Amino acid sequence: MSLRRFNELRGEEVAYAVDRQDRTFLPAQEHCPLDPTRPGGPATEIPFPAFEIVVFDNLFPSFEAPQGAAEVVVYTDDHHGSFAGLEPARAQALMWVWRQRYEELGARPDVEYVLIFENRGVEVGTTLHHPHGQIYAFPLVPPVAGLELAADARLGGCAPCALLARELADGERVIHSNADVVAYVPFAARWPYETHVVMREHRASLAECAAEELASLAEALQAVTRGFDRLFERPFPYVMVVHQAPTDGARAGHLHVEFYPPLRTATKLKYLAGCEQGAGTFIMDVLPEDSAVALREAIAFDSQPSRAGHGVAL
Amino acid sequence: MSLRRFNELRGEEVAYAVDRQDRTFLPAQEHCPLDPTRPGGPATEIPFPAFEIVVFDNLFPSFEAPQGAAEVVVYTDDHHGSFAGLEPARAQALMWVWRQRYEELGARPDVEYVLIFENRGVEVGTTLHHPHGQIYAFPLVPPVAGLELAADARLGGCAPCALLARELADGERVIHSNADVVAYVPFAARWPYETHVVMREHRASLAECAAEELASLAEALQAVTRGFDRLFERPFPYVMVVHQAPTDGARAGHLHVEFYPPLRTATKLKYLAGCEQGAGTFIMDVLPEDSAVALREAIAFDSQPSRAGHGVAL
Fold this sequence. Notes:
The structure is a homodimer.
Chain A: E1 2-7, E2 12-17, E3 54-57, E4 69-74, H1 88-106, E5 113-120, E6 132-138, H2 143-155, H3 159-170, E7 174-177, E8 181-184, E9 195-199, H4 211-231, E10 238-243, E11 256-260, H5 274-279, E12 282-284, H6 288-302
Antiparallel strand pairs in A: 1-2, 3-4, 4-6, 5-6, 5-10, 7-8, 8-9, 9-11, 10-11
């Protein structure tokens, strides 16, 4: 059962999904529900002995038809893989899967916003280690999308377009780019290694992208996430969120992917505590320019094939 | 050095305090900077052999004069104490300390909002175990205060007054009350054991409260925090935030204290991940009514003197 209540003091809906308390929690690999069902092995959620990418309904949904949807996107049948480590062709295919789900879910009359995301690492509450992401289809336009639309109004045009132009003109926080996509630590980052991966041209959603643009997006996302893993020579936890136009038909948006990594050092977390929760103001220990230097080096290092994979400290 | 930058996509200021990365991190008790300076012992931040309540400037400030302030409030010289465990007279005195700081900081021309809070427990990023809270004086009205003012406008009057009336009429989520103060799990709680402790009469701030009201507030806050510790028979982590009127002179507000506890079970945390960070929508596993039942029992159990302190499981 899922239901929603309006929180007056915060001016936002809260979603209650009370069956989720019992959901599968960090199972051992032999009980992983996202592994393939191998001959002679236990039945998993995926009744095939091997697969590329699988999407299915979340068994513990935060949103349910006809008031939205919740889906799981399994990136690979390799339990020990990662988004960063996918073959480039698989990462590109994932962009097409995201696009197809955005279009199909977004076309439903009960869906006003499609949120594609990945929670990676126990530090951000991952309950299954198998590489996967999630998709929530909202019956409303949620607060963060509302803030982005407000930014468009405040700036008198597409805010991500304007911010990208500023970042390119400055250049100091750009950490990676290709023909179609730019990755940077934003000027007013709220997380030490927050990174935005932004389409150069104005594209409201994945549905508006050409095939080459989707390939470029996959390349940039993989370069950034490989750089993350290189940064502290450990699997780097993050929240990855695809920001796109709402699907209620009336509003603007600019496809970009935001990463919110919880680490401020290799072993210390940034917490959302009194100031962030009670005032809504983020306190940052690290300047975005310094984060950008470290991430740029980590990405550049990793892109040298002769050095990649040797675990050399920066 | 502290500075601020405006985050366009979120429509909010971010504060950078880049010296904080090196701040004291979970020192052993013999190096606790909040302990008294005992004869023959090391010098701490507090040059007295004993004390009741001490306030001093944070050495690692998120806000600095003339653009705000950051202070530390040490509740007791007992390193192993807690807010819940303070003698009632000390807890009442703390209310007067809070009030004095609110008034003095709020009177400064550079200060528009005073945030009094406590981060308790490593789960919310506490870096010092010694019982203490913090005060940030903001050179702006931060987003959460803005949302509360927006709620007033939406409801056509004081939102906390209206919400308190609804909670009292319903009664199902009230967990404790006295002559002047009511504690409840709010109808649209965002955290499993979120609790609001609200003045019955309309009081914009601590400065408007009678002495009996401050005593009642201290009683209710201690009842709630003792109940928290009883709930899972462990020190219960929380973020405690005092919400009051901005001090820019122009705006309304209603004194209440909000607790955001990160636990959803005795050992499992609620994380802010893709949906919360990327959409701004909280997903909850627990209904507020169920949390209220558990907290009401924990508070009632603890208030029976013959049973208190024996560590009997609920």
